[in-house]
Amino acid sequence: MRIGFIGLGIMGRGMVGNLLKAGHELIVYNRGTERMQPFVDRGAKAAASPAEVAAGSEITGVCVTDDAAVEAVLSGPEGLLEGLGPDGIVLDHSTISPEQTLRAARAAAERGAEWLDAPVTGGDRGAAAGTLTIMVGGSAAGFRRVQPYLQVIGKTLVHVGGSGKGQLVKLINNFIGGIALAAAAEGLTIGLRGGVPLETLMRVLTAGSADSVSLRLLAERLQSGDDRPGFSLANRLKDMDLALAAARALGACLPVGAVAAEMFRERAAAGEKDLDQTVLVRRYGGPEPGGSW
Amino acid sequence: MRIGFIGLGIMGRGMVGNLLKAGHELIVYNRGTERMQPFVDRGAKAAASPAEVAAGSEITGVCVTDDAAVEAVLSGPEGLLEGLGPDGIVLDHSTISPEQTLRAARAAAERGAEWLDAPVTGGDRGAAAGTLTIMVGGSAAGFRRVQPYLQVIGKTLVHVGGSGKGQLVKLINNFIGGIALAAAAEGLTIGLRGGVPLETLMRVLTAGSADSVSLRLLAERLQSGDDRPGFSLANRLKDMDLALAAARALGACLPVGAVAAEMFRERAAAGEKDLDQTVLVRRYGGPEPGGSW
């Protein structure tokens, strides 16, 4: 299959690697052109613009940072829309607002093409291993058409509803995970200040009702001391704010999530937005006054 | 071994059942005496008071509701202390404050005996199956002495530190789990209001970074519609408040947990304290205005 891909960040690189490995013909584009070279070396074609990617492929994947980046790829000069033909289909793996997704889907539909929102969870490891969970919003026919592509990059493939619903479910996932990370940070803080070693706490908590993906992630980072972003604090905050905005539009009142978002915002304001999200735990001041993790 | 047990609630009944099955000689006490009969039928001896239990056993288990109930068992008329000999050892499975635990441990020590705090997690199912996680505070020698008892009722047995540390870790477990339950309630509310079915949400979220024990528990209850308490809202609130009090004593500031506790308190004030903790989700008003779960 001729597959296009726009956005070769941490996540996109893993997906493109797997699509190449599966024998697909790839045409890629990245704003910073140096990221294309490793894939050109493996047989992919480098495009000069998003329009060229869309024009040259049956399915076009997109994986960029936020609403503004998707808008730039879509409608900028030589944007994706210019190259999108009447049978084109776009899979957007970015995590963006349901509203921006609806705008993109309408623009694609005007050209006879389809835009599926297909955000993913599973991190850089899942992207590299091809084991991502992918939540797809759009038509059932579109979901069927992209199966040969989805099955290469992911393991759990779920058609969650119409256009924008994939983004909504992704935001919910990251919203719940963000609060759970704050919960883990607050709980571990009590234990460490109370003199119980992290290893002891984790032996009990992972065998107890406190267990969660976020708790294990935080403990792993506390043990390694590694602050480099697997998932940056800025990205977590962005997703929690988008989830809260979606909730407000739906009339839901979510106090615990709102406070958790403010905790991440405080660390962002303190200059830590480009560090890993787990630096949130510093908000709570360490195992004892003045102590270090 | 001659084992005593005080408190035949949901959790205590499971533990005593397993101790009997393992061939131990049991002497039991419960304030409401009708709960003793099924165990008498299985060969246990019914005692007339906590003092009689302690006088007749090598190890005495206690599993009651709160600080006040432990105090009543310990120091009331014909209380446990009166029967506790110099080689006695008490295992307290109640979830209470570290402060009350320290008082009980001092009182036991004055009689030459030892009080181990040994709260559990795993719920009524874990108690019945003998697969509880047990976090023990007290001396290493005491922890070794009670192994024949612990290995019958639990699977993950962890000596977490000195007296009171078992309770501290248990409170942390229930604190983190309580916030995670609020997180799940808020996140699922967004999705249900947004028109995504619960089954679809759970397929994605359990394969994503939102996954947690609390999320699965809440979804199971929403699907069954069962409000009868596995773990009551009043008990969850009690544990979160105890965790927050412990955190304050340690100088930690925990805004997300404080707000989550207020959410549980609101449902308690609305008359739902004796229902299952998962009724918290009603706080958020259902899948759409006026809709039902």
The secondary-structure class of chain A comes to alpha/beta
The radius of gyration computed from the alpha-carbon positions of chain A, rounded to a whole number of angstroms, is 20 Å
What's the β-strand tally of chain A?
Answer: 9
**Under the CATH scheme, which class of the largest domain in chain A?**
Alpha Beta
**How many separate domains make up the residues of chain A?**
2
CATH topology of the largest domain in chain A: Rossmann fold
- Which strand-content bin applies to the residues of chain A? 5-15%
Biggest chain-to-chain interface with counts: A-B, 68 and 68 residues
Question: Can you write the helix and strand succession of chain A as a string?
Answer: EHEHEHEHHEHEEHEHHEHHHHH
Helix content of chain A: 40-55%
In CATH terms, the superfamily of the largest domain in chain A is NAD(P)-binding Rossmann-like Domain
Mean pLDDT of chain A: 94
Structural features, described:
- 2 copies of one chain form a homodimer.
- Helices cover 52% and strands 14% of the residues of chain A.
- Chain A is α/β, with parallel strands linked by helices.
- Chain A has helices spanning 10-21, 37-41, 50-55, 67-75, 80-83, 98-110, 123-129, 140-145, 147-153, 165-193, 198-205, 213-224, 233-249, 255-272; strands spanning 2-6, 25-29, 45-46, 59-62, 89-92, 114-117, 120-121, 132-137, 154-161.
- In chain A, α2 (37-41) links the parallel β2 and β3.
- The first copy, chain A, has 2 domains: 2-161, NAD(P)-binding Rossmann-like Domain (Rossmann fold, 3-Layer(aba) Sandwich), CATH 3.40.50.720; 169-284, N-(1-d-carboxylethyl)-l-norvaline Dehydrogenase, domain 2, CATH 1.10.1040.
- In chain A, α1 runs parallel beside α7, α10 (165-193) packs across α12 (213-224) and α10 packs across α13 (233-249).
- The first copy, chain A, has a 6-stranded parallel β-sheet with strand order 3-2-1-4-5-6.
- The first copy, chain A, contains 14 helices and 9 strands.
- Chains A and B meet through β9, α10, α11, α12 and α13 of A and β9, α10, α11, α12 and α13 of B.
